Protein backbone atom coordinates (compact mmCIF):
# COMPACT_ATOMS: atom_id res chain seq x y z
CA UNK A 1 0.00 0.00 0.00
CA UNK A 2 1.23 3.48 -0.81
CA UNK A 3 1.93 5.43 2.36
CA UNK A 4 0.96 9.08 2.50
CA UNK A 5 3.83 11.58 2.35
CA UNK A 6 2.02 14.04 4.57
CA UNK A 7 -0.82 14.00 7.06
CA UNK A 8 -4.33 13.75 5.62
CA UNK A 9 -6.56 16.80 5.40
CA UNK A 10 -8.87 16.99 8.40
CA UNK A 11 -11.48 19.52 9.46
CA UNK A 12 -10.99 20.55 13.07
CA UNK A 13 -14.11 22.25 14.47
CA UNK A 14 -13.37 25.64 15.97
CA UNK A 15 -16.27 25.40 18.41
CA UNK A 16 -14.43 23.00 20.75
CA UNK A 17 -10.95 24.53 20.63
CA UNK A 18 -11.40 26.87 23.59
CA UNK A 19 -12.62 24.07 25.86
CA UNK A 20 -9.12 22.71 26.40
CA UNK A 21 -10.53 19.21 26.81
CA UNK A 22 -12.58 18.35 23.72
CA UNK A 23 -10.87 17.11 20.57
CA UNK A 24 -12.87 16.67 17.36
CA UNK A 25 -12.16 15.95 13.71
CA UNK A 26 -13.97 15.38 10.44
CA UNK A 27 -12.02 13.51 7.78
CA UNK A 28 -11.81 14.55 4.14
CA UNK A 29 -11.49 12.41 1.03
CA UNK A 30 -7.72 12.82 0.56
CA UNK A 31 -7.73 11.10 -2.84
CA UNK A 32 -4.31 12.48 -3.74
CA UNK A 33 -2.71 10.73 -0.76
CA UNK A 34 -4.38 7.36 -1.19
CA UNK A 35 -4.67 6.68 -4.92
CA UNK A 36 -2.87 3.42 -5.52
CA UNK A 37 -4.60 0.24 -6.69
CA UNK A 38 -7.80 0.39 -4.68
CA UNK A 39 -11.47 -0.09 -5.34
CA UNK A 40 -12.12 3.36 -3.84
CA UNK A 41 -9.44 6.03 -3.88
CA UNK A 42 -8.86 8.23 -0.88
CA UNK A 43 -9.09 7.79 2.88
CA UNK A 44 -12.16 5.57 2.81
CA UNK A 45 -13.08 4.64 6.39
CA UNK A 46 -16.28 2.68 5.83
CA UNK A 47 -16.62 -1.10 5.94
CA UNK A 48 -20.01 -0.81 4.23
CA UNK A 49 -18.33 0.05 0.91
CA UNK A 50 -16.86 -1.82 -2.05
CA UNK A 51 -13.39 -1.61 -0.57
CA UNK A 52 -11.55 -4.61 0.84
CA UNK A 53 -11.83 -4.83 4.62
CA UNK A 54 -8.04 -4.98 4.93
CA UNK A 55 -7.69 -1.63 3.15
CA UNK A 56 -10.31 0.04 5.36
CA UNK A 57 -8.61 -1.38 8.45
CA UNK A 58 -5.28 0.06 7.31
CA UNK A 59 -6.91 3.43 6.57
CA UNK A 60 -8.49 3.51 10.02
CA UNK A 61 -5.25 2.46 11.67
CA UNK A 62 -3.29 5.22 9.91
CA UNK A 63 -5.92 7.82 10.82
CA UNK A 64 -6.02 6.83 14.48
CA UNK A 65 -2.23 6.92 14.61
CA UNK A 66 -2.33 10.46 13.16
CA UNK A 67 -4.91 11.50 15.76
CA UNK A 68 -3.11 9.81 18.63
CA UNK A 69 -6.09 7.58 19.43
CA UNK A 70 -5.70 4.08 20.87
CA UNK A 71 -7.57 1.68 18.51
CA UNK A 72 -8.98 -0.11 21.57
CA UNK A 73 -10.37 3.13 22.97
CA UNK A 74 -12.71 4.27 20.21
CA UNK A 75 -16.36 3.37 19.75
CA UNK A 76 -17.94 3.02 16.31
CA UNK A 77 -21.65 2.83 15.51
CA UNK A 78 -22.83 0.14 13.13
CA UNK A 79 -25.33 2.54 11.62
CA UNK A 80 -28.75 1.57 10.29
CA UNK A 81 -30.28 4.99 9.44
CA UNK A 82 -32.41 4.83 12.55
CA UNK A 83 -32.74 6.96 15.69
CA UNK A 84 -31.42 4.69 18.43
CA UNK A 85 -28.92 6.23 20.85
CA UNK A 86 -26.40 4.11 22.78
CA UNK A 87 -24.57 5.07 25.97
CA UNK A 88 -21.10 3.49 25.80
CA UNK A 89 -18.27 3.02 28.28
CA UNK A 90 -15.65 1.23 26.18
CA UNK A 91 -14.31 0.95 22.66
CA UNK A 92 -15.69 -1.39 20.01
CA UNK A 93 -18.43 -1.48 17.40
CA UNK A 94 -22.03 -1.09 18.58
CA UNK A 95 -24.74 -2.60 16.41
CA UNK A 96 -28.09 -1.14 15.41
CA UNK A 97 -27.32 2.39 16.67
CA UNK A 98 -26.85 5.77 15.00
CA UNK A 99 -25.67 7.86 17.94
CA UNK A 100 -23.18 7.28 20.72
CA UNK A 101 -22.88 9.06 24.07
CA UNK A 102 -20.22 8.70 26.77
CA UNK A 103 -18.94 10.32 29.94
CA UNK A 104 -15.77 8.20 30.00
CA UNK A 105 -12.65 10.31 29.77
CA UNK A 106 -10.30 9.33 26.95
CA UNK A 107 -12.92 7.36 25.02
CA UNK A 108 -13.42 8.49 21.41
CA UNK A 109 -16.69 8.26 19.48
CA UNK A 110 -16.88 7.89 15.68
CA UNK A 111 -19.65 8.28 13.11
CA UNK A 112 -19.24 7.55 9.39
CA UNK A 113 -21.03 9.56 6.70
CA UNK A 114 -21.22 10.26 2.96
CA UNK A 115 -23.95 12.94 2.50
CA UNK A 116 -25.59 12.53 5.91
CA UNK A 117 -24.48 14.92 8.65
CA UNK A 118 -22.20 13.96 11.51
CA UNK A 119 -23.30 15.98 14.55
CA UNK A 120 -20.69 16.16 17.31
CA UNK A 121 -21.81 17.37 20.75
CA UNK A 122 -19.99 18.11 23.98
CA UNK A 123 -20.55 19.52 27.44
CA UNK A 124 -16.94 19.99 28.46
CA UNK A 125 -17.87 21.16 31.95
CA UNK A 126 -19.66 17.92 32.76
CA UNK A 127 -17.39 15.72 30.60
CA UNK A 128 -20.11 14.33 28.33
CA UNK A 129 -19.75 13.90 24.55
CA UNK A 130 -21.83 12.47 21.72
CA UNK A 131 -21.54 11.63 18.03
CA UNK A 132 -24.67 11.44 15.87
CA UNK A 133 -25.34 10.10 12.38
CA UNK A 134 -28.10 12.33 11.02
CA UNK A 135 -29.42 11.32 7.63
CA UNK A 136 -32.97 12.17 6.68
CA UNK A 137 -34.45 9.20 8.54
CA UNK A 138 -32.54 9.83 11.72
CA UNK A 139 -33.07 13.58 11.55
CA UNK A 140 -36.80 13.23 10.98
CA UNK A 141 -36.87 10.62 13.75
CA UNK A 142 -35.48 13.18 16.22
CA UNK A 143 -32.15 11.46 16.76
CA UNK A 144 -30.52 14.76 17.78
CA UNK A 145 -33.11 15.56 20.50
CA UNK A 146 -32.92 11.95 21.68
CA UNK A 147 -29.14 12.20 21.94
CA UNK A 148 -29.28 15.46 23.89
CA UNK A 149 -31.82 13.84 26.20
CA UNK A 150 -29.38 11.02 26.96
CA UNK A 151 -26.64 13.58 27.56
CA UNK A 152 -28.95 15.43 29.94
CA UNK A 153 -29.68 12.22 31.83
CA UNK A 154 -25.96 11.94 32.53
CA UNK A 155 -25.80 15.48 33.87
CA UNK A 156 -25.12 17.58 30.79
CA UNK A 157 -26.57 21.08 30.77
CA UNK A 158 -28.05 22.35 27.52
CA UNK A 159 -26.67 25.83 28.14
CA UNK A 160 -23.16 24.33 28.14
CA UNK A 161 -23.47 21.96 25.17
CA UNK A 162 -21.54 22.88 22.05
CA UNK A 163 -22.31 21.35 18.66
CA UNK A 164 -20.65 20.86 15.28
CA UNK A 165 -22.64 20.00 12.15
CA UNK A 166 -20.36 18.47 9.53
CA UNK A 167 -20.27 18.95 5.76
CA UNK A 168 -23.25 17.15 4.28
CA UNK A 169 -25.64 17.33 1.35
CA UNK A 170 -26.87 20.86 0.67
CA UNK A 171 -30.46 21.87 0.02
CA UNK A 172 -29.94 22.40 -3.71
CA UNK A 173 -28.74 18.81 -4.05
CA UNK A 174 -31.13 17.18 -1.58
CA UNK A 175 -34.02 16.36 -3.88
CA UNK A 176 -36.54 14.04 -2.22
CA UNK A 177 -39.91 12.50 -2.91
CA UNK A 178 -43.10 13.69 -1.28
CA UNK A 179 -43.01 10.78 1.16
CA UNK A 180 -39.70 12.09 2.53
CA UNK A 181 -40.55 15.79 2.32
CA UNK A 182 -43.64 15.33 4.46
CA UNK A 183 -41.46 14.02 7.31
CA UNK A 184 -40.07 17.55 7.74
CA UNK A 185 -41.71 20.84 8.72
CA UNK A 186 -42.64 22.85 5.63
CA UNK A 187 -40.21 25.63 6.51
CA UNK A 188 -37.34 23.20 5.97
CA UNK A 189 -38.49 22.07 2.53
CA UNK A 190 -38.31 24.09 -0.70
CA UNK A 191 -41.40 23.23 -2.74
CA UNK A 192 -41.18 26.13 -5.17
CA UNK A 193 -37.73 26.47 -6.73
CA UNK A 194 -37.23 22.90 -7.95
CA UNK A 195 -39.18 20.27 -9.85
CA UNK A 196 -39.34 18.13 -6.71
CA UNK A 197 -39.07 19.04 -3.01
CA UNK A 198 -35.61 19.82 -1.58
CA UNK A 199 -34.81 19.45 2.14
CA UNK A 200 -32.45 21.77 4.01
CA UNK A 201 -30.86 19.27 6.40
CA UNK A 202 -28.38 21.64 8.02
CA UNK A 203 -30.99 24.26 8.85
CA UNK A 204 -33.37 21.60 10.16
CA UNK A 205 -30.69 20.23 12.50
CA UNK A 206 -29.67 23.73 13.58
CA UNK A 207 -33.27 24.65 14.37
CA UNK A 208 -33.65 21.47 16.40
CA UNK A 209 -30.60 22.38 18.45
CA UNK A 210 -31.93 25.90 18.95
CA UNK A 211 -35.30 24.56 20.08
CA UNK A 212 -33.55 22.29 22.57
CA UNK A 213 -31.98 25.39 24.12
CA UNK A 214 -28.49 25.43 22.62
CA UNK A 215 -27.21 28.95 22.23
CA UNK A 216 -26.58 30.13 18.68
CA UNK A 217 -22.96 30.89 19.54
CA UNK A 218 -22.48 27.28 20.65
CA UNK A 219 -23.31 25.81 17.24
CA UNK A 220 -20.81 25.55 14.38
CA UNK A 221 -22.13 24.66 10.93
CA UNK A 222 -19.64 23.68 8.26
CA UNK A 223 -20.73 25.17 4.93
CA UNK A 224 -19.28 22.34 2.83
CA UNK A 225 -21.56 20.34 0.51
CA UNK A 226 -20.51 16.73 0.03
CA UNK A 227 -22.21 16.50 -3.38
CA UNK A 228 -20.69 19.67 -4.83
CA UNK A 229 -17.13 19.28 -3.54
CA UNK A 230 -15.87 16.10 -5.20
CA UNK A 231 -12.25 16.97 -4.41
CA UNK A 232 -12.72 17.05 -0.64
CA UNK A 233 -15.66 14.78 0.14
CA UNK A 234 -17.23 11.44 -0.67
CA UNK A 235 -20.86 11.54 -1.70
CA UNK A 236 -23.14 8.55 -2.03
CA UNK A 237 -25.61 10.58 -4.05
CA UNK A 238 -22.89 11.54 -6.51
CA UNK A 239 -20.85 8.33 -6.57
CA UNK A 240 -23.34 5.66 -5.50
CA UNK A 241 -21.58 2.35 -4.76
CA UNK A 242 -18.21 3.89 -5.67
CA UNK A 243 -18.44 6.23 -2.68
CA UNK A 244 -16.24 5.87 0.37
CA UNK A 245 -17.06 7.08 3.87
CA UNK A 246 -15.72 9.88 6.06
CA UNK A 247 -15.58 9.93 9.85
CA UNK A 248 -16.65 12.43 12.45
CA UNK A 249 -14.68 11.79 15.65
CA UNK A 250 -14.91 13.36 19.09
CA UNK A 251 -12.93 12.69 22.30
CA UNK A 252 -12.89 14.03 25.84
CA UNK A 253 -9.28 14.29 26.97
CA UNK A 254 -8.11 12.01 29.77
Total of DSSP H or I helical runs spanning 4+ residues:
6
Using the CA coordinates, give the radius of gyration. Answer: 17 Å
Ranges where pLDDT stays below 50 over 5 or more residues in a row are: none
CATH topology: CNF1/YfiH-like putative cysteine hydrolases
**Which class of secondary structure composition applies to the elements?**
alpha/beta
CATH architecture: 4-Layer Sandwich
**Helix-strand topology string:** EEHEEEEEEEHHEHEEHEHE
CATH class: Alpha Beta
How would a crystallographer describe the biggest sheet?
6 strands, mixed
Number of domains: 1
Described by the principal axes of the CA atoms, the overall outline is globular
Helix content: 10-25%
Q: What is the average of the pLDDT values?
A: 95
Strand content: 15-25%
- Tell me how many strands there are: 14
CATH homologous superfamily title: CNF1/YfiH-like putative cysteine hydrolases
Can you walk me through this structure?
GO terms for molecular function: copper ion binding; hydrolase activity; S-methyl-5-thioadenosine phosphorylase activity. This is Purine nucleoside phosphorylase. Keywords: Hydrolase, Metal-binding, Transferase, Zinc. It is a single chain. The protein is α/β, with parallel strands linked by helices and 254 residues long. The protein has a single domain, classed as CNF1/YfiH-like putative cysteine hydrolases, CATH 3.60.140.10. It contains 6 helices and 14 strands. The strands form 3 sheets. It has a 6-stranded mixed β-sheet with strand order 1-2-14-7-3-5, with no helix packed on it. It is globular, with a radius of gyration of 17 Å.
